[in-house]
Amino acid sequence: MSSAQATKNCITLKGSAQIIVEYLKYGIHSILFQRGIYPAENFDSTQQYGLTILMSKDPKIETFLKNVLSQTEEWLSKNMINKISMVITNAHSKEVLECWDFKMQAEMGDNQSADPTQRTSSKDQTRIQNEIRDVMRQISATVSYLPLLDCICTFDVMIHTLENTELPAKWDETGAIVIQNAQAVQLRSFSTGLHKVETVVNYKMST
Amino acid sequence: MDDIRSSLDNMVDQFNDSITHSAPKKLLFNRLSISLSDDSATLPKKRRMEQESPNCSLNTSNGSLNSSTTDPNGIMQTNKLRAELIETKARLNQVQEKLKQNDKKRRMELSVAESKVSSLQAQSDYTSNKMVRLLEEMEKMRGIESSYKEEMRRAKAELAALKLKYDDTVSKLKNEKAQQEHDARDVQLCINNELAEYRRHAQRADLELQSTLNELEFIRQRHDEYKVRVSGFEELRANFEKQQQSLKVAEERIKDLEFEIQSYTDWKQVTKVSQERLASIPEMDAELQRLRIHNRQLNKIIGDKLLLEEQVHEYKARLDKEEGARAEAASLQVKLTHTEQELKEWVKVAQDHCLANTLVSPAALRSRIEQLLQGDIVHVSEKYASESESKQMRNAVRDLEQKVRIYLKNIEDLNMNLKRHKNFKDRLQRKLRTVSRERDFYKQMVDNFDKDLTMSNASVAEMTQDMQVRYRVDVLERTVTGYKDLCATLDREIQAMRDQEQLSDPSSEDYENVKKELDTLRIENDRLRRRKEEQELEMMQRCLRQDISSPVSKVVHFADNPAAEAYESSKNMFEKLQAEIERLKRHNKKLEDANEQHLNETTTSTGGMTMNFKELNKLRAELESANAKLGKTKEHFMAARKEFRDVVYMLLGYRIDRVGYKSNYRVTSMYAESPDDYFSIALSESNDLALLETPYSETLQPALDQQLAANNSFPPFFSSLTLDLFQRATVTIN
C-alpha cells in the first residue's frame, strides 16, 4: 500500500510536461476568450482547476493548439524550451499588441539527478493545481487593466527553443517580436517541482 | 434561578439549624432519659447535683447515709434508697453507654449527612450554573426567534409589496400590450393606407411612364423627321458653300485680271523709261570713263593717306616712348639723389659706428654689424638665461611660499597644540594644586589624628570625657569642612573641564571639515543608492520583457497558425474589396455616362418639355418654403411698421399716411377736432417738401404765413400747431 502511495505521488518529467501543457491549453483558451480575440459565442464553458474556463469551439483553433501543444510537450519533456509566447497581433497591420510569455525553468526535483529523465518530484498534485488556479484567476483579472483591443486581432504561439533544435515539418523559424512602448506585468508562477512556469504579460501602452 | 438558589440556601440553613439544634435536643434527650430513668419522684435539685458531678451525689448520698443513721425510721428507707441508688447507678451506666452509642451513631450520621450536604451543594451549584446557562441560551433563542419572526414579518410585507408591484407591472404591461396592439393595428392600417396610396402612386407613375414613353416615341419620330430635314439642310448648305467657293474663285480671277491690267500699264511706263535710258547710253559711257579715272585718283589718294597715317602713328609711338624715357630718367635722377643721400647717411652711420681710427668701408661696417649682432645674440642668450633663471626663482619662490604656507599651517597647528598643551598644563597645574591641597588636607588630617592620639595618650588623665568629646567634634568638623572644600574644588574642576570640552569641540576646524565631508559623502551615498534602485528596477523591467534574451535560443512557430491565416484572409479580403471598388467605380462611371447621355438626349430632343419629376417636386417644395418665408417676413414687417407708426404718433402727435402711388403724404394731428383736419404734403423729385392746399390748411392761413413762410421749416410749424390744438383741447375739457 505504501509503495503504491509513493508511486502515485511521483511526478516525472513527462508528467510535468503534461501538466504544463494542460495549463497552456486552458490558459491560451482563457486568454482568447478574455481578450475578446474571437466572438464569445464560439466558446464553451468547462470546469477545470475548480474554475469555469471557456474553451474555443473553433475546429481550426483546436487543431492548431493540438499540434502546437503536442510538440511543446515533446520538447518540454526534453527541457528544450526557454519560453513560450502567445502573441496577439492586429490582423491587418500585423502590429504586435500583446505578448503573453510563459517562461519555463527546469528544476532539479527531489533526487537532484544529473539525468533529467530520472528526476522526479513529490509535489502534491492538488497543490500544483491550486497554484495553477491562482494563475488562471490572475489571467482573468488582467482584463481590468489591459488596454481594450478594438481591432480585429489574431494570435500566434511562438516557442523559444534551443539553438540546436531540429524543426519538424510545418514548423518555421521566425524572428523575435517587439512591442513598441511595452509595459510588462508579472503574474504568479507555479512549479511542478521539475518545471517552474512564470507568466508575464507584455502589452502596448495606449498613448 | 435566584429563587431556586434561595430555596436551596433555606434548605441548607434548615439543615444546619437542625444540626445546631441537635445539641440542645440531645441535652433534652439526656434530660428525658434521665427523667425516664428516674422512676421515683426524685427532686430536681438532686438530679441537678447528679448532673453536675456524680461524685458529689455520692458524697451527698453518703451525707444522706450519714444523716440517715441518725434517723431510725429511715434505715429501711435508706436501704431501700440504697438499693434504688445501686439500681439507678446501674441503670445510669447502662443509659450512659446507650448514650455514648447514640452519640457515636449521631456523629457518623452527621458526617454522612455533611458529606451528602456537600455533594448536594456541589450538585446544586452545578445545576444552578447549568440552569443559568440554559436560561441564557433560552434568552438568546428567544431573541433569535423574535428576530426570525420580525424577518418573517418583513419578508411577508416585502412579498406583499412585491406582489402589488408585480401586479401593477403586470397590469401596466397588459395595458401596454393592449396599447401596442392598438398601435400595431393603427400602424397596420396606416401601412395599408400608405400601401394603397403607394400603389396608386405607382399606377400613376406607370401611367406617366406610359405617357412619357409615348411622348418619347413621338419625340423619336420627330427626331427622325428632323434628321431627314437636317440631311436636306446639310445638302443645301453644301450646295451653298460650293456656290460661294465658285464665287470666290471668280472674284479672284477678276482680281488677277485687274492686276494684270495694272501691270500692263506699269510695263508700258517702264518700256518708255528704258527707251529713254537706252538713248542716253553713250553719255553714260563717257561719264563712266570719267568716273573711273576719278576713282583711280581717289584710290591713290587713299593709299597716300594710309601711308601718312602709318607714319603719324609711328611718330606718336616714338613720342610716347620718348616721354616715358624722359619720365623714367627724371624718376631715376630723383632716385639717384635719394640714394646718394641715403648713401651719405649710411656713410655717416658707418662713421658714427665704426671705430675712429679705422677706414670707413662697407666691410668695416659689416664687421661692426656682425660684432653687434654677435653681441645681440649673446645678450639674447643672456636674457633667456636670466628669464629662465627668474622663472626658476619664481618657481622656487612659489615653492617657498607654499612651504611657508605649510609651515604657517604647521605653526598654527603647533600653536593650537601649544594652546591645548597650555590648557592641559593649566589643568594639570590646577589638578596639582588640588592634589597638593588634598595632600595638605590629608597631612592636616594625619596631624589631627596624631594629635588625637597624643591627646588620648597624654592628656587623658587631665581632660574630662566631655572635653575630649568636644575637641574631637571640633576636629571632625574641620575635617568635614576640608572635605566640603575639596568637593567644591573638584566640582568646579569638572565644570571647567566640561566647559572646555564644549568650547573645544565646535571650535576645531578639523571637526567641521570632517563633518562637511561626512555630509557630502552621505549625499553621495544617497544619490548612488537611488541610482542603484533605479537601475535595479530597470533591470527587472528588462528581465520581464526578456530584452536580455538568452543567445542560444531560436524562436519557432507552427507554420499553419491562425495569425498567418488571418493575415492571408485579410489580404485576400483587401484585394477583393479593392477589386470590388474598382468594379463599382467603373459601374458608377458607366451609370454617370449613361445618365449624362440620357439627359443630353432628353434636353436636346424635347427642349425641356419633360422635366424630372423629382426635380420639379423639389423646386415646388423650395418655392413653397420661400413663399412661407416671404409671408412670415411680410407679417413681421407689417407688425414692426404698425408699432413704429404708433410710437411716432404717440411721441410726436402726428399720423403720417402715404396716399396714392405718388409720394403724397397726409399729416393728421392727434388733437385735431375732426378727421378731415389734415395737411397734404408732397415730396418732389428734388427731395423738397411742399404743402398742398387742403380745406384745413385754408383755415390756418395766417399761422401758415407767419411760421412756415417765415422760417421755411415744418417742425416749428407743426409743434406750434400741436401746442395750439392741445391748449384748445384742454380748455374744452376744462
Structure characteristics:
heterodimer, A: 207 residues, alpha+beta, Cell Cycle, Spindle Assembly Checkpoint Protein, Chain A, five-stranded antiparallel sheet, two-stranded antiparallel sheet, 4 helices, 10 strands, 34% strand, globular, disordered N terminus, B: 734 residues, mainly alpha, four-stranded antiparallel sheet, 13 helices, 5 strands, 87% helix, mitosis (chain B)
In percent, how much strand structure appears in the residues of chain A?
A: 25-35%
Oligomer designation: heterodimer
The average pLDDT of chain B is 83
State the order of secondary-structure elements of chain B, H for helix, E for strand: HHHHHHHHEHHEEEEHHH
Q: What percent of residues of chain A adopt helix (DSSP H or I)?
A: 25-40%
Assign a percent range to the helix content of chain B.
Answer: over 70%
How many structural domains can be distinguished in the coordinates of chain A? 1
Q: Give the C-level CATH assignment of chain A.
A: Alpha Beta
Mean pLDDT of chain A: 85
The CATH architecture classification of chain A is: 2-Layer Sandwich
What class would the helix/strand composition of chain B place it in? Answer: mainly alpha
- Give the neighbour order of strands across the main sheet of chain A: 7-4-5-10-9
| Cα-to-Cα separation, first versus last residue of chain A | 62 Å
Percent of sequence in beta strands of chain B: under 5%
As for the CATH topology of chain A, it is Cell Cycle, Spindle Assembly Checkpoint Protein, Chain A
Number of helices of chain B: 13
